[in-house]
């Protein structure tokens, strides 16, 4: 066994501390995007003003209707969707695994992009194909 005092269960997907941290940064990212949209977009502001702040915190991309998508713009919408997917993966216990090949996504990559759903190989393959 390694001489490190840190216990790490063999076979565990990603450690829970790390996932907890990522869940927190994902939620922060999400509220950051929403705050930004409120600050910069009158239409969006109007939409969310009618909402309970509690609902806003749990806003899921599925709940966002067409009107809201138009207000948000597709780029931010895409990010919100990715963040939601990542949060769902955490709930399913699959966070940190590539959605395509099921390989572990390196923690460095997750730290850089908490909503990364694919490993670098699959992601670059997809980007090549979409070019
Ligand atoms: Zn992959």
Report on the architecture of this protein:
The chain has 131 residues and is an all-alpha fold. The protein contains 7 helices and no strands. α1 crosses α2 (42-49) and α1 (16-40) runs antiparallel to α5. The mean pLDDT is 82. The protein binds zinc ion (ZN). Residues 98, 100-101, 103, 118-119, 121-122 line the site of zinc ion.
- How many strand segments? 0
Order of helices and strands: HHHHHHH
Low-confidence blocks of residues: none
End-to-end CA span = 47 Å
Outline the fold blueprint.
Layout: H1 16-40, H2 42-49, H3 53-57, H4 66-72, H5 74-92, H6 107-112, H7 120-130
Helix pairs in contact: 1-2, 1-5
The structure holds zinc ion.
Zinc ion (ZN) is lined by residues 98, 100-101, 103, 118-119, 121-122.
Structure at a glance:
The protein has 131 residues and is mainly α. The chain is built from 7 helices and no strands.
Please supply descriptive tags for the structure shown above.
globular; 131 residues; 62% helix; mainly alpha; binds zinc ion
